[in-house]
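Researcher: Structure for this, please.
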Amino acid sequence: MTAQQSSTAPVGPRSDGEDQFPAGAQVFVRDEVWLVRNSVRTEHDGAKVDVVGVSDFVRDQEAVFFTGLDTIELIDPRRTKLVRDESSNFRRSRLFLEAVLRKTPLPQSERRLALADSFLLDSLPYQRRPAELALSGRNLRPRLLIADVVGLGKTLEIGLTLAELIRRGRGERILVVTPQHVLEQFQHELWTRFAIPLVRLDSVGIERIQREIPAGRNPFTYFKRVIVSIDTLKNTDQYKHHLERINWDAVVIDESHNLINRGSLRNQLAQILAPRTDALILASATPHNGDAKSFAELIGLLDPAAIRDPEHYRAEDIEHLFIRRTKISPEVREQMKGQWADRGPSQSVRCAATPAEEKIFEELAAVWLPGENGTSVSGVPLFPYTLLKSFLSSHAALRATVTARIKTLEKKDEPTATRAELAALRTLQELVEPLTEADSAKFAALVEQLKAIGIGPKSDARVVVFSERVQTLEWLRTVLPAALGFRGREAAESTRVMHGGLSDEQQMQCVEDFGLADAPVRVLLTGDVASEGVNLHRQCHQLIHYDVPWSLIRIEQRNGRIDRYGQAHQPQFRALILTSEVEGAKDDTVVAERLLDREDQAHRALGTAEAVTGLYRAEAEEKSLIQDLLRGRTVDESLDAHRAEAEADAAMDDFLADFFGSVGDAEPDTEDADPQDTEGRGAGASAQGNAAVPRLFTSTAEFLDEALSEVFPDATTSLDLHRDTESGLLSFRPPTDLVHRLKALPLDYVREQRLRERLLVTFNRRLAEHSLKRARESSTSSWPEISLLTDLHPVVEWLTDKVLVRLGRQEALIITADVPEPTYLVQGVYSNALGRPTVVKWMGVTRGGTVEDDMVGLLRRSGVGPTMANPMRHSEPATTLEAGIPDALTAAERFLDRHRDAWDEPLRKPIDDYKARLGDWEQPTLAGERTKKSLASLADSLLTTGRPLLRVLAVLVPDPEAPGRPPSAS
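Model: Predicted structure, token format:
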């Protein structure tokens, strides 16, 4: 056993079948028997084999072995010992065979989805297509950028993709990197919807692990699947040496547009992670800054050779790597009918400035923003607009801006240069200092609007109020509750504030509380920290812009917090528009109201407002708009001019026009698509049907029910098991070995639901959904007490392992069935140089050497099923049957070898196509040539290599007393 984490970089092809350890097989290491969970080739230490103990001394212990460090003995299939199955209905055999089927990863050749229908989410084909694209084989590895616009369900699409990777043995080690305020939300969705557990780590959690593990041990090896804030991991000085020494099966980076700036800490983190993972999923609704070269760098994280010229390429050149849809895309529009309410119009609520506010408008218009023929008192052209935006937010924000500017100028010690501006600032300070909420037209309008919505002590209505300024948010928290009629403790609990100055835990707690129906919070006052990635639509469909950001993208991002998949009510948007009678005053009608109208127009016509200006970044939009206002342009003139400039740039137009044309957007009618067409398929096509996954049991529920009866015949006593036959609820006390596995689950969930004491699980999707809904209505925990059992659930995996270890080392079972002669059930697995299965075949081999590669069909035709009787008799002794095993294995290998080229062809073609593209990719630098050589080696390592691994699972024998059967010679 080793604590060392080894590299899993590609290695050269093997010439034989060594170091193949399929999941579900038993191995002999250090005088103990272990069950293989997963194995992968490494660069220096042979195969890395993840196992769990089987023999008494190591039972249920988890371990990792490397063939370069330990002798790992895989059972020689020719020495398989056959034992009689004396269980009723051959339950032991059927469970064992089903368990092997379940533990064996789907081969690389299976492109279709296997699990999409088994999770707690609506069946929406558009949400499946990112997973289909990742598995399509059009790229060497499962790598893609999910660029769907705000609200379409990117987290669910990521969950589906990860689930399929796990089923293929390519998702053992997962790292998810998100902004800090969505950590718990992301973790919650992946567990409650897919039963994919992620352990949340922050800097404190990592330090705690480092204290608990031996010195020098990598803290990121402690848990197999983790979710970490990008703000934690971007500290490359602290974590770089750990991250460089670990490889992942899959890495997810949410809000990946933050990775683009070369040299930034986030970019450095991405450059470390990208080459150290097999699968890489990037997600962002705005993964571009309008610069094709910058976007090419982002795509380069997925595939360094995807783009020949980073300044001249089209979306179709990289459509195998990314997918983008909007709410008005045909497939989305058709599939979302009735499931996502159309948003309401953005309503401008005009507020006439109070006399005190008009005096400030007069001062700003006369001294700071005097118009075309005047000169501003400020020597910094943009600062007067900073003052204006602060004032349009609140007097509290203006007061803070004026105070900060005075301090800055006083530090300069340049009295002559700063005298006039300081005097003007002190005049503003005198005007703003005495202002209270009674002098705020916006505040009065806000209270009026909130009461009209129904916000108050006796109402459950909720609202999100956005402001750019922290001072505005904090001021509103102090004055708003009382104005709405909240008193005492209720006043403190009714209103919450969220902004970037809060810690990870504080931000996540704000989001969680706002999403719980019986939590007392009614008003969430938030800055634009909540405009990216945060779900605020669970209990809310009302949003008010207290101030309006001067960016179409930011307005759309704010609106997307409640206008998203799962919203049951029509989202309602209001914006408070401060108006003035002062001549030349730049009130909210000048900028804010026009931006609201243009965002609404773009959303309805295009599905997104990102492309209107051609700038593609909120910060760039605002800066450009202010500069145009300084030049005398109106808002509309500014927006239209920049779009025209972008369209005049041919290179930019080629790429971004395609990009905003919804790349990978399929028409809803795909009835004529070929379900077997998995090669060369455009990103817009969708694979039809589900993967061909062999099963002996009709459902996971049937398998679990029989497995419980087999493994725990006294479950009512030993597990304190209770079944509600009407609802499908299973309640039991987890045994020690299952409690040990619960360490992989979210810690808050385990603690709040007391899972170590009792588990509540179900296959009833409606019951699980109801439990999830009830959790959202609870003030105590957002984690549901009942979890949905899926193929990935730890309880199902635990029972599957329990079934497998009940059979001894090198043993296979004898089943009396309706067959004319002894028939050996053999598993055959071809692998690539990375140790991943490329072809998996389940065969029946007769004594005469006839091979059938449909083991499940053979079993059904032979009467093997839950109603079959076990006659407790066999036609031949076990020793005679064992003597036939070598010949059966020889026949099976000949059969596999005969068909290998045909099975390999679908795998070989996309790899050959990629190598052809790689040959055309010219890079003048030495690093570029090294990358090219590495990618070519990776392509070769994906091809089938070596001999197949064979394994005898069972033998079917005739019933010697069956009607018409000749008497046995024995």
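Researcher: Any notable elements?
Model: Residues 827 and 842 are 5 Å apart (CA to CA). The first helix runs from residue 91 to 103.
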